[in-house]
Amino acid sequence: MSSRPSTYIMEWLSKSLAVLYGLEEILYSGRTRYQKVDIVRTKDYGLALVLDGLLQSAEIDEFIYHESLVHPVMLTHPNPREVLVIGGGEGATIREVERYGGVESITMVDLDGELIDIVREKLPSWSQGAFEDRRLKLVISEGRSFLESQPDESYDVIIMDATDPVEWGPAAKLYTKEFYSTAYRKLKRDGLLVTQASSLSHSLRTYLSIIRTLGEVFPKTCGYSVYVKSFASIWGFAVGSKAGLPSELSGGEVEERIRDRGVRGLKFYSGRIHEALFSLTEALTRNWGAETLILTDEKIESGIQL
Amino acid sequence: MSSRPSTYIMEWLSKSLAVLYGLEEILYSGRTRYQKVDIVRTKDYGLALVLDGLLQSAEIDEFIYHESLVHPVMLTHPNPREVLVIGGGEGATIREVERYGGVESITMVDLDGELIDIVREKLPSWSQGAFEDRRLKLVISEGRSFLESQPDESYDVIIMDATDPVEWGPAAKLYTKEFYSTAYRKLKRDGLLVTQASSLSHSLRTYLSIIRTLGEVFPKTCGYSVYVKSFASIWGFAVGSKAGLPSELSGGEVEERIRDRGVRGLKFYSGRIHEALFSLTEALTRNWGAETLILTDEKIESGIQL
Amino acid sequence: MSSRPSTYIMEWLSKSLAVLYGLEEILYSGRTRYQKVDIVRTKDYGLALVLDGLLQSAEIDEFIYHESLVHPVMLTHPNPREVLVIGGGEGATIREVERYGGVESITMVDLDGELIDIVREKLPSWSQGAFEDRRLKLVISEGRSFLESQPDESYDVIIMDATDPVEWGPAAKLYTKEFYSTAYRKLKRDGLLVTQASSLSHSLRTYLSIIRTLGEVFPKTCGYSVYVKSFASIWGFAVGSKAGLPSELSGGEVEERIRDRGVRGLKFYSGRIHEALFSLTEALTRNWGAETLILTDEKIESGIQL
Amino acid sequence: MSSRPSTYIMEWLSKSLAVLYGLEEILYSGRTRYQKVDIVRTKDYGLALVLDGLLQSAEIDEFIYHESLVHPVMLTHPNPREVLVIGGGEGATIREVERYGGVESITMVDLDGELIDIVREKLPSWSQGAFEDRRLKLVISEGRSFLESQPDESYDVIIMDATDPVEWGPAAKLYTKEFYSTAYRKLKRDGLLVTQASSLSHSLRTYLSIIRTLGEVFPKTCGYSVYVKSFASIWGFAVGSKAGLPSELSGGEVEERIRDRGVRGLKFYSGRIHEALFSLTEALTRNWGAETLILTDEKIESGIQL
Prior knowledge:
4 copies of one chain form a homotetramer.
Chain A: E1 7-14, E2 17-31, E3 36-42, E4 46-51, E5 54-58, H1 62-76, E6 82-87, H2 92-97, E7 105-110, H3 113-122, H4 124-127, E8 136-140, H5 143-148, E9 155-161, H6 177-186, E10 187-199, H7 204-215, E11 220-228, E12 233-241, H8 251-260, H9 271-287, H10 297-301
Parallel strand pairs in A: 6-7, 6-9, 7-8, 9-10
Antiparallel strand pairs in A: 1-2, 2-3, 3-4, 4-5, 10-12, 11-12
C-alpha cells in the first residue's frame, strides 16, 4: 500500500468516468477573486495548474496543447501582425505567439490578474519570460466585454484559451453565436479565430456544437484535435475563418511557413504532425457521431445541458 | 447522486493513476480455467470484454485497436499467405486478417478455449463470423510452446495479441528475446512480426523495451501507436521485420495496397491514418523518453519490475 | 496491482465522501419492475444485496442491523401479537419477529415480489425459512396505500424497513407526518412504530428530522443507533410510541423479557447492548448537532433537499 | 458536478476497501525529517491531521478517540501520579491526562519535534495549551529506546499513541512482546499500559494480536473499541495491567471516580459510555473472529503480513 500516493485529484471526464491522479506535493493552494488555484506536483504529469479542481495544463504536455492551439491558425494566416489572446493565464499561449517575428502586437485579456501573478512566480517554465515581451499588452478584464469595446477590424488572429463552456460557467458566453459575431467583426480581412473546444473523446457533443456554432457566423470552419495525456483525452480545437483554413494547408506548406517565418523552439508541432492531427480527427469524428446544437446566449442563460 | 452509476471498474494505468468507469450492466461474469471473464456494458465505451479486471476491448473502439494491430504489417509484407495469430480470443484480429483475399491459411493459437466460446456467443459483433472462415485453423494451446513445435519458415506474418508483459504474468514469456528468436526462425523471407506493446502513454518503458528487445533479434524494427479511448491511453505496437517496415510505407502506398489487395470494410485505417500514427508516435516518444531494458526469460523469471 | 479487486461499488455516503468496496463475484445482476438488483460477494462484507447501487445488507452484519431494528420495540411492547412489517424484502426482519412465540400474525408488505423471489433463492441465509412461517401473511403492495386500507387499531407493532427518504425517492412518503398519522391510527393501545432512520454519522439531519416528525404525531419518541460496518456508518432508528419507549427499558429488563418471551438465537442484541446503543447515540447526537425539519408530503413533493 | 470537491484523500481501509474523502482546503503541506505532514480542512470531518497520507485525527471526533484512549486506564489506576505518553504529537493525549489534578508528572516522548511545532501552531484546538502545563516533560526521542533507558518502576500509567504496526513501519517495534516486557518493568505496582490497537472493523487480526501479545507479558489484559467516524472504523484499544482492568469497572464506579478526581471538560466519556464500549466490543469480536499471532521483534524484522 505504501507505494501509492494518498492525495488524489478526482476529475470526472463524463458522468460515469472519473480519473484519479496522485499528487506528490501541493506547491500552492489558494483562491483568487475568481477561482480556486492549486499548483501541484503530480506523479504522472509533473507540475500542473489546477483551477476549481480541473487540471488546466501540466508540465509533461502543456506544449502539446499550446502549440496545437496556436500554430495552425498563425501559420494559415498569410501575415499575422495583430493578435488577440483571450484567457491563457499561464502565459504559454503568448509564448507560442511570440515565436513569430512578424507579429507586431499581442493583446492578452484575462480576467484573473492574481492568477497570472501566481503562475508567473510558481510555474515560470510555462511563460518562459513571455510576459516581458515588449509587443505584449496585458489587459486584466473580462474577454467578451473587452472585445465588444474594440473597434472593428482590429486583429488578424484571435486565440481563445478559456475554460470549458459548462452550463452557467463564467466562460460559457465565450462560445456563443453572439460572441462569435462580435469576434467576426473585430477580425481584419483573412482573419481567423481559434478556440479550444473541449474534449473530443469525452464531450464530443460540445466539440461538434462549437464548430457548428462558428459555422453560423464564419464562412469557413474546421476542427482538429490532439491527444493530451494529462487531460486523459483527445482535445479539440475549432477554427472559424474569413479566408483560409488550417485544414487546407499541406504538411509541406506548414514546414515551409515555419521555416520562412523563423518559428523556432517547437517541441511538438511540425508539418507531419499538422497532417496527422487533421487525419485522426476526421477518422474519430466519422466513427463517433453526436447530435449538436447551436450555442446562443439565450440557451446558455437558460442552462442548457451540454 | 442518482445520475452516476454505482458499479465501476477501477483500472490502474500506473501506480498513481486510476480510471473508474461506470457499468450499466454485467452481461456475463465467470471464470475460465485461466482467467476471470466479465462482459459488461459500460456507460462510456459500450460493450466491453474485461479479463482479470482489465478492459481488453470495447465496442466503441475495438476496430481502432484491431485495425491498427493488423494492417500495417499485412500491407507491408509483399504477399502474406500464411499468417499466425497468437492470442486475440475475441476473434477481431482474425476478422481483420480475413479481409485479405490473398491469405491462404490463418493459424490462431489461444490458450483459453472457454473464453473463445463465451465471446463468440456474447460478443458476436467482434468476430462477425470470423471463426467460420474456412482458411482458419484454431488451436487451443499455449502460444510459445506451439510456436516452438512448428517447422522453421512457416509463416509470412506473426501477429501477437496477448495480454501485457506484467511481471510473472502468464504472457510475459511472449515478449522476451528468446521468444523473438524462435519467432524469427519461424518466419519466411520478408516475414514480419507485430505485437501489441502496452501503453505508450502510461508504460512507456515497457513499450520502448519491447522495441529494443525485438532489435536484438530482427534486423529492422519500428514502433507506432494509436489513441484508444477505452484504454484511456495511446496504445503502442512494435514490429520486427526481416525486410520492409510499415514505417517505410507512405500513405499513398498504403492506399494503393489496400485497393490492390481488395481490403474492404475498414472503419479507421487508411493511408492518411497510417502516416498520422507514425508521425505522432515519433513526436511523443521524442518528448517522453524512458530508460529501457532488454527483456529476457531470465529477467522475467526473476520478476523484474517493468 | 494484482492483489486488489477490479470491480468496485462506489457508494457516496455524503456529497464529499465515497466508499469503494471491492467485489469478488457478481452472483446475480438484474432488474425487477421497481429496481436494479445485484447480489454480490464482496471481499470485506461477504455476500451482499445491492439495490440501485446501494448496499442494503451484508452477510457480515445483517444480523446487527435487523436485530437492532426489531427487538427494541418488540421487547418494549407488553405483549405484541399483531405485527406489520413494511419493506424488509430480504426476509431477515420477519425472521427476527418470528422469534417471538407470542406473536400471532405477521403481515409483511413489500412492493417488489420479484425481489423477494430472487433473495429467497440467492440469499437463503437471510430469511432462514422465515417465509414459510404459518403466521406470516405476505402482501405484495405499496406500503402506504396498504396501511391506509386497513381498519384502525390493527397492529401492536409496525416495523418500517424501507429504503431511505431521499428526495423524490419512492419511499420518501413513508417518512412524512401524514404517513405517521395514518400509522398512529392503525396502532392499538400500547402500540409502537419503529423505522430505520438513515445514517446518523453521514445524514444526521435526516435522522433527527425523522425523530422530530414522529414527535408531531406520537406522544413519545426516541432514537438509537448501531454501528453497521458494511454501511460504513452508525445507522439510526427512530421510534414513536403510544405508551412505553425502548429507551425507558433497563438492560436488566431487556434480559428478563428476552428470557420470559423465549426469544432465542440472537447473535448481537442483549440487555448490555441495549444500554450501549442508547448511551452511545445520546453521546454522539449531543456532540454532532444538526438543524432539523418536519417531513411532510408537501415538502417531499416539492423536492426538499434532505 | 460542481458540488463535489476535486481533491480527495484516498485511504485504503483494507486491500479491497477504500474511502475517498473530499478536501476543502490544504492549510499546510510539508515534510518533517520523519514523515509527510498535511493539515487539511475536510468537508465531512472538519480540520484534520494527515501523516503519510493517513488521517490521524479530525476535529469532529478527535475527542472521542483521545478520551477513549486515556480515561479508562487513568480511572482504573487507584492513583496515577507518574504518566508516560509515547507518541500523541497532536497534544490531545496529554490534554486528557492533564485533567487529573492528582497527576504529578507527565513525560511525553515523541520522535518528531517538527511535527509538534507544526501542530501547535496550526491545530491549537487539539492541545488547548496542554504543552504549557508545568507538569509536562517533553522529550524528542524514539519511544522504545527512551523507555529502555529509564529506571524500572518509573510510571503508573503508560499511554501508547503511536502509528499503526504495519509491517516494516517505524512504529512496529512498539507493539512487540519484547517492547511490552520492557514496559512491564517500567511500570510500578498497579501499573497499566494502554495502546491504540488499530481498526477493529478493518484490521481485526491486528487488534486481536496486540491483545494476545500483551497477554504474553501482563497478567491481565482487555480490549475495547469506539466508533470514530473520521476513521470510518470502530477503533480498538488494548490494555495490559499488573492489577485492575477497565473492564472490571462498572459505569457507576467510573462516574464516581470522574467526580472524585475532579475530571472536568469531558465531551464524550462517561460511566454509561464506558459500559457501552465494553459491551459493544464484546459483541463485535464474538461475531467477527480472526486468527491471531504473537508479535515479536523477529517477526516484525522478517516482515510478517499483519
